[in-house]
UniProtKB/TrEMBL annotation:
One of its GO terms (cellular component) is cytosol. It comes from the Bacteria. PANTHER family: CRP FAMILY TRANSCRIPTIONAL REGULATORY PROTEIN, REGULATORY PROTEIN YEIL. This is Crp/Fnr family transcriptional regulator. It comes from Kushneria indalinina DSM 14324. One of its GO terms (molecular function) is DNA binding.
């Protein structure tokens, strides 16, 4: 199934997998669940006893602050495992919502325990993926606290492009980014109006062109230099796998 191959491609970015390991990994993508745009996989504070694989579509996790404003923490793409940071917690620490129509495959924590028992390579890879997710969260914090608005958006677009390149062939100078202006604002601590102005500024510098949800980057290296984007935090390898 195509949704399985996307998750496998995600994992194979970190390490080579045997046929038996691919089969074991695909057991986590049983019972696909279709969810419409705006539907919630789970909400912050609910009992955490499961994770999920995003097989198709885009989703995000968010945290609501005391004043009612929203902070977006993660953006999920096909092949991503959702809920790894909550593996040892009793409740979900953030709300996960579908950005587009999605296919999720939920699985209880005990299924992951089974994978850990059966394959040390997959265990190491899950830890590597968890480390990358944590590194992306750290970069999000740096974006919020230390970069100006143009650098924030440019860095985020470079990150999205690099992540998409893991499971998609081609240079990806053009890609679809199905996030609303409000979502981008909540990611970067800006207002939607400010996001629009930043896109206009990047366009005037011939760095980024946006047509609704379509993003075009005419010179990737130029944008990376502008954003001071170093993608090493996205390229961790699984330890002890020979990868």
């Amino acid at each position: 199934m195509s949704h399985q191959s996307c998750m496998v491609r995600h994992f194979q970015y970190f390490t080579d997998l045997s046929d038996s390991e691919i089969e074991l990994l695909c057991t986590l993508e049983k019972s696909p669940e279709q969810m419409e745009n705006g539907s919630f996989l789970w909400r912050e504070g609910e009992h955490a006893e499961e994770m999920a694989v995003l097989s198709q579509g885009w989703a995000y996790s968010s945290y609501v602050l005391e004043d009612g404003s929203r902070m977006i923490l993660d953006v999920y793409m096909p092949g991503d495992v959702i809920g790894l940071r909550e593996y040892a917690t009793e409740t979900h620490q953030s709300t996960v919502e579908a950005i587009t129509d999605c296919t999720f495959c939920r699985f209880p924590h005990c299924h992951l325990d089974h994978v850990f028992r059966e394959s040390s390579r997959l265990t190491n890879t899950f830890f590597a993926i968890s480390a990358v997710q944590q590194s992306m969260l750290v970069e999000r914090m740096v974006n919020l606290g230390r970069r100006n608005a143009q650098s924030k958006l440019a860095h985020f677009l470079c990150e999205m492009r690099s992540r998409l390149a893991k499971t998609n062939a081609g240079a990806l100078d053009e890609f679809r980014l199905p996030l609303s202006q409000q979502m981008l604002a909540d990611l970067m601590g800006l207002t939607p109006v400010h996001v629009s102005r930043v896109f206009s500024s990047l366009r005037s510098q011939s760095l980024v062109y946006r047509d609704r949800h379509q993003i075009t980057i005419p010179d990737v290296d130029k944008l990376k230099a502008f954003a001071d984007f170093r993608e090493g935090y996205l390229r961790m390898r699984a330890k002890g796998t020979g990868a």
